[in-house]
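Bit of a strange request maybe. I'm writing a small parser for structure token strings and I need a real example to test against, not something I typed by hand. Could someone generate the tokens for this chain?
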Amino acid sequence: MVSDVLLTILTVVFALMVVFSKKTVVAAFSLLMTLLVVAMIYFQLGAVFLSAVQVLVNAGAIAILFVFVMMLINLDQFANNRE
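Reply from user aminoacidic:
Good idea to test on real output. This should exercise your parser:
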């Protein structure tokens, strides 16, 4: 029961960090953590295969792809244009 509440709170906190973060790297890391906590919830419910798919597909591929794209577009050059 306590772990259910803890995982739910962690999921909500990391999801809010994705939405309200000013830095894109922090938002991508928060997205990765949100997906991993959701995988923990699936594991706790007994859906081991769904948990593994969540980690491999979402956390492994999508979040790493976001970080790779951020490195490619070099967001530092766009920071000066905002001012």
